Recover the amino acids of this structure.
C-alpha cells in the first residue's frame, strides 16, 4: 500500500464535482474553471457573467436597510437646523474608513460635523462613558456611530438622556438576552444589515459598507439616485475596510470590493496614493492581498500603537505633502508594531500547553494594540482558538481568534458573568474583564473548549477545487483564474491537486533561504511545471530530485524581463514512497 504524507499535516478535501447539467451549462469554460465556479455558487452562463463582471447593479438599494428613511430624515433635519453632528467611529481599519466616508460626505453637504475615534488604551473599543462625556462636552446634538454601538444598550440610553439624538450604524452581532431574544439600543434609527426588525438581503456588510449605504440614501434624497459619482468615489475605502475586517467576499461585498479596487488602483484619493507609494506598490497591479496585508496593517498601526486619528487624517487629507508625511509616520509605526508582535508571540508560545484545545495566554508587558495580531498568529500556527490577554493592575483586555467549528462570541457569552464587556464575530472577538476574574474565566473557557472541540475540529482542512493534470494548465486557465479576484474570506484563491509529478530540480531561495523553488515533470504528458513554496515546514527542505510528489496549490502567472510564465504557488505537498 502506498503511504501518502502531507508536509502541512492537513486533510485535503476535494470539492464536489459539478453535475452533468452544470457542466453542460458552463461548457464554454475549461473543466478546472467549471469546478471553481460551481464551488462559488455559479451554476450557469448568466451567473458566470455576473461573477466575472461585477457591476453597480449588483449592489442592493440602500432603503432596503431597516429605518434608513428615519436616519436620512434625522440627518436632513440636523443639517437644516445647523445642529452639531459627531461621528463616533472605532480605531480599526473598518471603523476609520467608515468614519472618513461619512465625515467627508457630511462636510461636502454643508454639515456642522466633527469626529471622535476612541483611544484604544484610554477608552477601549467603541462607545464608552468616557467617549460619550467628551462628545457631550462638545455640545453635540446628533451622534452617528460607525462600526459600533449595537451592543451598547445602556450607553445609548445615557446619551439620549443627555439630550443627544442617536443614529447607530454597525455590523457586529446583535445582543441577545438569556432567552435568545434580541436586545436593540433605543436609538432614533439603527442601520444594521442583520437588524432583526428588517430583511436586508445581504447580512455581511462591513461597518464602512453599512455607513456607505447611508451616504447612498442621502444621495438619493439630494440627487434622486443612490449610486452617484459622489457615492461611488468612496468605494476605495469600503473595499479596504471590507477586506481588512475579513468580511465574506461574496455577492454584494464582491461587487463593492471589485469596484473599490478599481478606485484604489486609480489612486484618486491623495491619502491612499501616498500610502501606496510609501509601501512600494506604485508600479504594482493591486488586488485584495495588497489591501489586507500591506495597506491595511499600516492604517491599523495608528490605532494599535498611537491614535487612529492619524490614519483618519490621512484618508481625508487634501494636500499631498501632508498625506506623504502621515503615510511615512504610519510606515514607521507599522515596523515598530511588527517588532512588538514578534516579541509578544515568542513570549506567548512559552506559555502553551497541549492539555486543552484552546490557547489562553496573558502578559503584563504586552502592548494592548498587538494582542489581536498575536492571537491570530497563534490560531494560524496551531489551528486552535486563541485568546491573548493584556493584564493590567485592575483591568484585563483580551482579543480572540477562532477556528471554523468554535463560535468565540458564543463561548464568551456563556461565561459573561466573568466579563465586563465583549463583542465581535464568530471568528474574532474582544473583551474586557477585571484582572481578578481572569483566572476563573480562563479555567471556564479551557474546560468548555475540552467539551466542545473535538480532535477532528483541530485537523486543518485544505479545500481543493479540482484534481487536474499538467496538460490542463495553460494561459487561458490562468486568465480566467485571475478574474476570480477579489479573493479572500469565503472566496478563497482556487486550489488544485496536481500529480503525481516527478521532481527534476529543487533548491532554496529568498532571504535566509526560507522558500523553495521546484521544477516538476508530469510523466503522463511529459510536460514540465514550475512551483514556489513560501515558508514551507522545515521537513519540506528534504525533498530531493527524483521524488514523486502530489501538489496542492494555486495557479498564476509571473512576468520577468517581459517574459510571461505560469507558476504554481504551493500550499502543501504529499510525497509518495
Amino acid at each position: 500500500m502506498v503511504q501518502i504524507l502531507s508536509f502541512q499535516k492537513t486533510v485535503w478535501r476535494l470539492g464536489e464535482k459539478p453535475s452533468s447539467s452544470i457542466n453542460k451549462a458552463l461548457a464554454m469554460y475549461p473543466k478546472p474553471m467549471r469546478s471553481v465556479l460551481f464551488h462559488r455558487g455559479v451554476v450557469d452562463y448568466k451567473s458566470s457573467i455576473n461573477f466575472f463582471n461585477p457591476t453597480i447593479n449588483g449592489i442592493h438599494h440602500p432603503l432596503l436597510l431597516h429605518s434608513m428613511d428615519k436616519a436620512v430624515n434625522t440627518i436632513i433635519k440636523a443639517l437644516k437646523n445647523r445642529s452639531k453632528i459627531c461621528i463616533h467611529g472605532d480605531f480599526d481599519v473598518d471603523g476609520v474608513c467608515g468614519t472618513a466616508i461619512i465625515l467627508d460626505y457630511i462636510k461636502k453637504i454643508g454639515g456642522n460635523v466633527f469626529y471622535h475615534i476612541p483611544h484604544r488604551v484610554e477608552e477601549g473599543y467603541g462607545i464608552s462613558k468616557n467617549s460619550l462625556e467628551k462628545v457631550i462636552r462638545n455640545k453635540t446634538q446628533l451622534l452617528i456611530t460607525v462600526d459600533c454601538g449595537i451592543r451598547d444598550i445602556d450607553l445609548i440610553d445615557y446619551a439620549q438622556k443627555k439630550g443627544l439624538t442617536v443614529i447607530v450604524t454597525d455590523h457586529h452581532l446583535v445582543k441577545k438576552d438569556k432567552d435568545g431574544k434580541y436586545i436593540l439600543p433605543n436609538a432614533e434609527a439603527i442601520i444594521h444589515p442583520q437588524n432583526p426588525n428588517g430583511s436586508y438581503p445581504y447580512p455581511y456588510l462591513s461597518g464602512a459598507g453599512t455607513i456607505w449605504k447611508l451616504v447612498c440614501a442621502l444621495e438619493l434624497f439630494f440627487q434622486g439616485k443612490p449610486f452617484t459619482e459622489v457615492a461611488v468615489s468612496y468605494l476605495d475605502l469600503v473595499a479596504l475596510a471590507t477586506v481588512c475586517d475579513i468580511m465574506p467576499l461574496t455577492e454584494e461585498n464582491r461587487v463593492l470590493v471589485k469596484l473599490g479596487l478599481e478606485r484604489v488602483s486609480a489612486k484618486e484619493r491623495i491619502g491612499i496614493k501616498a500610502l501606496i507609494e510609501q509601501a512600494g506598490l506604485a508600479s504594482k497591479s493591486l488586488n485584495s492581498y495588497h489591501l489586507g496585508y500591506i495597506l491595511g496593517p499600516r492604517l491599523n498601526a495608528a490605532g494599535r500603537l498611537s491614535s487612529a486619528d492619524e490614519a483618519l487624517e490621512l484618508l481625508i487629507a487634501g494636500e499631498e505633502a501632508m498625506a506623504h508625511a502621515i503615510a511615512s509616520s504610519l510606515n514607521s509605526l507599522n515596523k515598530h508594531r511588527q517588532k512588538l508582535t514578534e516579541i509578544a508571540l515568542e513570549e506567548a508560545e512559552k506559555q502553551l500547553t497541549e492539555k486543552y484545545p484552546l490557547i489562553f495566554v496573558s502578559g503584563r508587558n504586552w502592548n494592548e494594540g498587538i494582542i489581536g495580531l498575536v492571537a491570530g498568529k497563534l490560531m494560524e500556527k496551531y489551528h486552535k482558538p486563541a485568546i491573548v490577554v493584556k493584564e493590567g493592575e485592575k483591568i484585563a483586555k483580551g482579543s480572540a481568534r477562532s477556528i471554523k467549528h468554535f463560535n468565540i462570541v458564543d463561548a464568551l457569552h456563556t461565561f459573561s458573568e466573568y466579563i465586563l464587556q465583549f463583542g465581535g464575530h464568530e471568528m474574532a472577538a474582544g473583551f474586557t474583564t477585571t484582572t481578578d476574574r481572569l483566572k476563573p474565566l480562563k479555567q471556564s473557557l479551557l474546560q468548555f473548549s475540552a467539551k466542545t472541540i473535538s480532535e477532528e475540529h483541530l485537523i486543518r482542512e485544505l479545500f481543493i477545487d479540482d484534481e487536474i493534470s499538467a496538460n490542463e494548465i495553460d494561459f487561458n486557465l490562468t486568465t480566467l483564474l485571475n478574474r476570480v479576484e477579489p479573493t479572500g474570506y469565503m472566496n478563497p484563491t482556487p486550489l488544485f491537486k496536481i500529480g503525481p509529478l516527478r521532481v527534476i530540480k529543487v533548491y532554496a531561495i529568498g532571504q535566509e533561504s526560507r522558500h523553495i523553488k521546484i521544477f516538476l515533470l508530469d510523466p503522463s504528458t511529459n510536460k514540465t511545471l514550475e512551483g514556489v513554496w513560501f515558508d514551507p515546514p522545515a521537513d519540506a527542505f528534504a525533498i530531493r530530485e527524483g521524488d514523486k510528489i502530489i501538489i496542492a496549490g494555486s495557479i498564476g502567472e509571473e512576468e520577468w524581463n517581459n517574459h510571461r510564465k505560469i507558476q504554481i504557488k504551493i500550499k502543501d505537498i504529499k510525497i509518495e514512497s
Summary: The mean pLDDT is 95. Residues 12 and 565 are 27 Å apart (CA to CA). The longest strand covers residues 496-509.
